[in-house]
């Protein structure tokens, strides 16, 4: 199939203090997140002048991606659209239609399946096409990439670098992978292979692959940044509780790999670099947070590989035995189980 463009579809974030509240309203519309939680999260953004790093990081990735596409001889203009903040995906898809784009690939910036990481991006695609009407381009979303070799290698190198910075050999510091928590119910709902817990199983699998490349067989997978009412169960343990537990075990040092995030989002720079690092310091645990994969040149190279899977019948590159999922046309969910 031929494509006229690539839509880089992400979460979006505020770029000034007055944008924080309306952004948070967009994120949580109809989700039952308590207002106290919104106030707390707004504070996190205000620590950074009301600016989330996410848009700048995405623009950096797009610059690198344009370079990689050009080197690969692919003439594919890259457009930027977001779910929750400007440039909003509706505006971007309207612009694509105006530019005469008839069919485009969509790269969504989440490695994962599940509602927030995949299904909701299909919904964004469908909503944007509907807003634009009959002239809207056909939009083909690329698959989930949690087990792509370049994503795994970039994360593994970042973990190695963090061990080096700590001056520790793997084995002298505990390796802890962290990803965004989600409600247990949400995790159970989705599993395109007929089994539940697709998201948490993918996170576990990506952690296993990265740890394997680093040569560590003893590691933990934990969760962070939960929201929602306290009585609703989310994936656990939380990273903070886990650091307490490691302290109780007498663990002297940790390397934290934020495998769940493709770049240094607010959840990484606040919840890890600030809160978790501070707790570790209080506990006397030496702490290093590994880099995210987004700034590694292999990340845009991976996107070019994913494009090649669609356009050149290039082989699907993956390191796990879990089935590929997440591809979809015009926002139709990829699978009955909602991917
Ligand atoms: C699985 C997952 C990912 C990883 C996959 C992916 O990358 O997509 C992710 C990414 C992100 N989440 C982000 C921000 C927020 N997420 C929130 C709320 C929520 N996230 C959830 C899940 C996830 N979220 C869930 C189940 C909720 C509860 C409400 C709901 O059911 O929707 C809220 C509301 C306040 C709060 O409750 O914390 C905010 C502000 C940002 C941008 C950060 C920046 O600005 O740099 C990014 C990349
Ligand atoms: Fe989130």
UniProtKB/TrEMBL annotation:
PROSITE patterns: FERROCHELATASE (PS00534). GO terms for biological process: heme biosynthetic process. Fe-coproporphyrin III binds at residues 52, 121. It is an enzyme of class 4 (lyase). GO terms for cellular component: cytoplasm. It is found in: Cytoplasm. Involved in coproporphyrin-dependent heme b biosynthesis. Catalyzes the insertion of ferrous iron into coproporphyrin III to form Fe-coproporphyrin III. PANTHER family: FERROCHELATASE (PTHR11108), FERROCHELATASE, MITOCHONDRIAL (PTHR11108:SF1). Belongs to the ferrochelatase family. This is Coproporphyrin III ferrochelatase. It comes from Saccharopolyspora montiporae.
